[in-house]
Design brief:
This protein is α/β, with parallel strands linked by helices. It contains 17 helices and 16 strands. Bound molecules: 3-methyl-2-oxobutanoic acid and zinc ion. 3-methyl-2-oxobutanoic acid (KIV) binds next to strand 5 and strand 6. Its EC number is 2.3.3.13.
Amino acid sequence: MFWKEMEDYVRIFDTTLRDGEQCPGAAMSEDEKVEIAQHLAKMKVDIIEAGFPVSSPVQFKAVERIAREIEGPIICALARSLKPDLEAARDALKPAAKKRIHTFIASSPIHMKHKLDKSPSEVLAMAKDAVRMARGFVEDVEFSPEDATRSEWEFLRELVEVVIEEGATTINIPDTVGYTTPQEYGELFHFLKTKVKGADKVIFSAHCHNDLGLAVANSLATVLAGGRQIECTVNGIGERAGNTAMEEVVMALRTRKDKFGVETKIDGTLITRASYLVKTITGMVVQPNKAIVGTNAFAHESGIHQDGVIKNRQTYEIMTPESVGLKSNRMVLGRHSGRAGFKDRIIRLGFDPKPEDLDNAYQRFLEVADKKKEIFDEDIIALFQSETRKTGVDEKYELVSFEQTTGSEKTPVSSLTLLVDKAKKQSTSEGDGPVDSIFKAIDKITGVYPLLSRLVISPVTEGTDAMAEASVTIEYEGKRVVGKGDSTDIIEACAKAYINALNRL
Ligand code: KIV
Ligand code: ZN
């Protein structure tokens, strides 16, 4: 179908689960990928790139499960321009109602010579064969000339023309190394759209990396040049400096529709939750001043700004917090709130709770409410998500209680009681700090001694009684897992996160 005959909007191609996962430390389990994919489907993402099936059996299984379980978006799998890759993509996508194979081959002189050791004509032939084979498997085929922005334009024109002749339906032009600029990238799109035979039969897509901090600006520039798909990730996670941030392009196109003339179909009110989910699962924190989803993105600190916002929010707000799913009326529940009120709030926050998750989360809510007078939406999201993350995980280890002695002149010592397969075990350990001592005490009981590769502690809300959320990444016998824990006590949050990670191993 000619794209001009199709609805004119910008398709959101989310690659959090593929390019996003490629960044150090962001590997996700199969269940976590499905959880993210479910949320992306709810947000009305057009295409979910679920993974690179040939790269490992784990990747294959995750793509297959997403293809089977996720309804709504097109499910896409990545493949090099090689037969085994394309066959793996076809097989993994089999259960999907709507499927796409995304095949790529490098087109820049530096990649062709040093990485592929292939001549331009060999690359041309491989791309042609790959797209033909992919079209034999599925109707929807995307082709990417990798490192397109450092490729010769005339060669790109020829390559793109050949793959369109073979039936490619989307042409993605990756800025693989984050090298291009908005003007140059827009001109490249204009060149390809006007010079390539058959350009009017396909959708042109942007795929940007953020090495120079230009990924979002570059992606938006292509919309002005006729691009109608943007590849992006939640929170902009991805290789090196990351990929185009989905929340930023969505809100830029929406807020400045006067300039772009088109926008996306994304439900913006689910952006904050998407950000939170990806942050929680990957353990990759979001900088406070990050556009749209940073904790300060809608905070007005200076007196002049606050005065203006009180008089009229539009003085300093170009979009509302509600439009991205942040509630301005944040104070919600307290210790006297009943189960019905708690359930109602969970549902209004966009969750679809299972009865057992609701029961566990409500018990946790009561515990937190005993320690903290005001429970905010962010607290509820954190505690609900941490309870649901336990579902399906074998709770071999459970924290019963702990005590610590510490101080500026003292070596920290932790004494702790754990349930191991429901039997109580106790241990005591010194450490280099309070967290180190409690982790060592846990190790003494479990006998596991994993490598701690990352520990992030972040407050969920403001104030000294705020809930803290800890994310712990551990590695053991070739496996890498992320555990989460929350509490009004940061040491307890860390201990719970460590135990959650051990249970996930
Ligand atoms: O950055 C890149 O070039 C990619 C391709 C596989 C599309 O991720
Ligand atoms: Zn990429």
